[in-house]
Amino acid sequence: MAALFDVTGSAMSRFENLSRHPTIELLIGAEVIFGQTAKDVFPAIYQDIERDIVERARVLRDHLKAKTDPASRKKVRLLNELIKHANAHKPAI
To answer: What is the pLDDT of residues 12-54, one digit of tens each?
Structure first.
């Protein structure tokens, strides 16, 4: 696998045990090799990144809520949609 991804064996091991986040090349390569999405190949990392982005979206939305200009209102609507979409696709626990 390391040869296919053009990384060392130790780097591949760090990706496998999740001590290192995969590069974009590794994500796309995994999709090519396994025929699955990055979300399916690296579910834990995907969930971590998704959670971080949604949290940043909430913080930004809350910051913009007090603003009344049209651009800020549009951003709040888009951020609400992003948050709603992410929450709708959370796996059931």
So the answer is: 888 888 888 888 888 899 899 999 998 898 888 888 889 999 9
Task: Supply the pTM of this predicted model.
Answer: 0.71
The amino acid present at 76, given as its one-letter code, is V
What stretch of H or E contains 83? helix 70-88
Note the residue count of the chain: 93
Measured from the Cβ of residue 80, the count of other Cβ atoms closer than 10 Å reads 14
d(CA 30, CA 26): 6
Report the C-alpha gap between 20 and 42 in whole angstroms.
12
Token readout for 41 is 């190949």
Q: What token pair was written down for 51?
A: 């959670």
Beta carbons of 76 and 51 less than 8 angstroms apart = no
